[in-house]
Amino acid sequence: PHATHTMPPKRCRWSTQDDQILVETLLTQKAAGNQAQSGWKTIVWSAVAAELKKVATDGQAEKTASKCNDHYCNLKSDFVLIKRLRDMSGFGWDDGRKLVTAADEQWEELAKACLKSIKWKSTPFPLYDEMFSLVDGIVATRSGA
């Protein structure tokens, strides 16, 4: 008799709720003093993974400590890009919709220079303020950086 093995999915799928839990846990850990200049202490990623495990559904790839760290790096990259866009001439921010705003001409010019930025024309970033709290003073976000 052979046991039927189903392969677990390899890639983690991150929902808006997962992102929220990740960021809220990091804010709690920051308040507890577990953030160093160089980044987060190892125990932090285990805490994030444990929080995410509470809401995980069957069949999902496990969000391990290392996958949580990787995903946070992606969120941080998105944040830095969005902050750069917000600081650009002609661009703004709709706080209600958590969306970068600009005239269509601005977006067209931007698309010529940086195609990956164009997704932020219609993609909200609801965790902007929380991410700002997490990376402020850690990541160089000024244009001179």
UniProtKB/TrEMBL annotation:
One of its GO terms (molecular function) is DNA binding. It comes from the Eukaryota. Keywords: DNA-binding. Residues 13-109 form the Myb/SANT-like domain. Pfam families: Myb_DNA-bind_3. InterPro entries: Myb/SANT-like_dom. This is Myb/SANT-like DNA-binding domain-containing protein. It comes from Thelephora terrestris.
